[in-house]
Write a structure and sequence with these properties.
This protein has about 300 residues and is of the alpha+beta class. It has nine helices and 15 strands. The relative contact order is 0.16.
């Protein structure tokens, strides 16, 4: 086993001044931090696999939520992964929803990197959708369409505001998804929705608290759904935003379960920790404590 932490850094972030400053600060605190820079997204998995083969036990993902997703999937799908392996987080994305949900000091990059390098690894649940792992949130419908349709350069310039602006434009062209929710031990729940979020953690889409009861180690996934209603009714129910979990809500619905299935009438836009896809049948489950993360 090798105890030196390794930062697997998103290639576009390697030359950012604040990243270099944070790395220098952590090394000045006595941490023997190693750095690897994959050539592209596909190369990231190969690099992480090689690090595990070489016996490194602390892998730090440097990037946004999509980078964290790629790192977690690479770890969990490796034959060399085990209880001795831990993951750290250096938040370098637009929104850094995962890091915010774990209450990392996102505004202090050097401190985040020091925690990622030296903090104790805590068991964290991992969500699974159709065999794909996610550590933060899987969002579907309206929110995922906004993320997929917002250009990267706009995201970089406007940060979380980019999602809000793109959402306002998208709002006028929404077409509801017809579908059915299947929860263990309950009758099928048909209906129409505009958007949904499945949270292993709380935040998505630039800081929106889409799963307020979610915890990364409770053995459950939180499902919040915005039902399809006309605009006046939606505006009239705006107070429901204050408590998405209220069982008396008419527009926003909320469930917690360790597994469930959703079928939709057409492929649903899904954003899995920042990674876009389209599927019409979604099987969700949770792997309790499957990943050790320093936070």
């Amino acid at each position: 086993m090798r105890d030196e932490p390794v930062l697997v850094l998103h290639r576009k972030s390697a030359n950012r001044p604040e990243v270099k400053t944070a790395v220098k600060a952590v090394k000045n605190r006595g941490v023997d931090l190693q750095i690897r820079i994959p050539w592209n997204k596909k190369d990231k998995r190969r690099v992480i696999e090689e690090l595990l083969e070489q016996g490194f036990r602390r892998i730090i993902a440097g990037g946004g939520d999509g980078t964290l997703n790629a790192a977690a999937n690479a770890l969990l799908n490796s034959e060399h992964y085990g209880d001795h392996v831990e993951m750290g987080i250096m938040p370098l994305g637009t929104a850094n929803d995962m890091a915010h949900g774990l209450e990392l000091p996102v505004d202090d990059l050097a401190e985040c990197l020091y925690i990622a390098s030296t903090g104790a690894g805590r068991p964290m649940d991992v969500g699974v959708m159709n065999g794909h792992y996610f550590v933060n949130v899987a969002s579907g419908g309206f929110g995922a369409e906004v993320t997929a349709s917002t250009p990267q350069d706009i995201k970089a310039q406007l940060g979380g505001l980019a999602y809000t602006l793109a959402g306002l434009v998208k709002l006028w062209t929404l077409e509801p998804y017809q579908g059915t929710l299947y929860l263990p031990g309950e009758e099928a729940k048909p209906g129409a929705m505009l958007m949904m979020a499945v949270g292993n953690n709380r935040f998505a889409g630039g800081g929106f608290d889409v799963a307020p009861l979610s915890s990364p180690n409770d053995g459950k996934l939180d499902l919040s759904v915005l039902l399809a209603v006309d605009l006046p009714e939606m505006l009239g129910a705006s107070a429901e935003l204050e408590d998405l979990t209220n069982p008396d809500n008419k527009v926003f619905r909320y469930w917690q379960a360790d597994r469930f299935r959703i079928e939709t009438d057409r492929p649903l836009h899904i954003n899995l920790d920042g990674e876009p896809m389209e599927v019409a049948s979604l099987d969700f489950s949770v792997r309790p404590g499957a990943l050790k993360v320093a936070y």
